[in-house]
Specification:
By secondary structure, the chain is α/β, with parallel strands linked by helices. It contains 12 helices and 11 strands. It has 2 domains: about 30 residues; about 230 residues, Spore Coat Polysaccharide Biosynthesis Protein SpsA, Chain A (Alpha-Beta Complex). The strands form 2 sheets. Strands 1-4-3-2-5-8-7-9 form an 8-stranded mixed β-sheet. Strand 3, helix 3 and strand 4 form a beta-alpha-beta unit.
Length: about 350
């Protein structure tokens, strides 16, 4: 009788778990609470744990090119971990339609890299937007060319408000675009937080195109440069947000008053007018303006941690000088295939 009761109990538990899985994966109307989160852990070792908090946003995975990008991103993330023994806490901001596909990719590659310590945390995209709406609206107002344009999508505005989404127990975050591919360990990137000064909150690499040289032409003109200066790399190169290190603790706490002012529509409007700045690249326009006004808040990553490959500007007015902007000497740790540029296979 005891054996029969135990078997019945196991059967009931199995049916309950199966029902939960079916509801979550096959009913897109059921939201995933961003506060509770749904977690999946894979092979976490029984030893004191250090975690690397990694954040990537992937929605509308039905677009085939996004699936291909995520496959390359995730394979490089776990395949290039090196000797790092930290647990990778992968935070996926996604939608209910995309989640099963992303989880299938993760399961596929974990079979090849069985020693990987990985914890996956799903955040529902719409719930995240509700949480950060008030903070990102000023960014969307000033840093998109037009509604419906590529960079008008909300995914390009989330990182400056990520401290509102991440739990208070997470004090540092590595935020990555899905079109990136590691050639070194993400742990080496995370270790750069140790180099931050007391005032630095964000870590970004330089923009490797003349886009901000182009945007700032009116400002330079009224600064006294009556003739068009030679286009070349300089102190106002700007930043690229394909890779961002966020000190979430400082965003929440000791620098929160200044941070709240910098994210306000009043400050953004003032600095946009100062530089006659017509941005269109989402959050990276904001980071760039912060670097102009408060450079002490930005740790500048080496370009090898965000080796951008886009050559659009080379074919749109900067053929002779593009290479001076795009130059990146030293080791390439991470490629960024922005504007759908293929990443070198070797």
């Amino acid at each position: 009788m005891v054996v029969l009761m135990r078997s019945y109990a196991k059967f009931v538990i199995a049916i309950a778990l199966f029902t939960v899985v079916v509801i979550v994966y096959f009913n897109p109307k059921v939201p995933i609470d961003v506060q509770l989160k749904v977690q999946t852990s894979y092979r976490v070792a029984n030893k004191p744990e250090t975690k690397v908090s990694i954040w990537v946003t992937v929605t509308k995975i039905s677009h085939g090119y996004l699936l291909a990008k995520f496959r390359k991103f995730f394979k490089s993330l776990i395949g290039r971990r090196g000797t790092c023994h930290s647990t990778f806490e992968l935070n996926l901001i996604t939608d209910n339609e995309s989640r099963p596909t992303l989880d299938n990719v993760i399961s596929e590659y974990l079979k090849q890299y069985e020693e990987t310590r990985l914890q996956v945390i799903h955040h529902d995209f719409q719930d995240v937007l509700k949480t950060v709406h008030a903070k990102i609206e000023p960014l969307k107002r000033f840093f998109q060319s037009s509604k419906g344009s590529y960079y008008s999508d909300d995914v390009f505005y989330l990182s400056p408000a990520l401290h509102l989404v991440a739990p208070d127990t997470v004090d540092k975050a590595v935020v990555l675009d899905v079109d990136t591919e590691f050639h070194s360990s993400v742990c080496d990137l995370h270790n750069i937080f140790d180099n931050f000064t007391d005032t630095e909150i964000f870590g970004l690499a330089p923009e490797l195109s003349p886009v901000y040289h182009h945007i700032l032409w009116k400002w330079r003109y009224f600064q006294g440069e009556k003739r068009k200066p030679k286009a070349e790399r300089g102190n106002m190169q700007g930043l690229n947000s394909g890779v961002v290190l966020l000190n979430l603790e400082r965003m929440r706490n000791n620098n929160s008053v200044l941070y709240d002012r910098l994210i306000s529509p009043q400050w953004i409007s003032t600095v946009v007018q100062k530089y006659l700045f017509k941005g269109h690249l989402g959050d990276q326009d904001w980071y760039t303006l912060v670097s102009f006004e408060y450079p002490e808040m930005i740790y500048q990553l080496e370009c090898g941690w965000n080796r951008q490959l886009c050559t659009w500007w080379k074919h749109h007015g900067y053929a002779e000088t593009f290479d001076s902007f795009a130059k990146c000497d030293g080791k390439i740790n991470l490629y960024h295939g922005n504007c759908n540029t293929p990443i070198p296979s070797n």
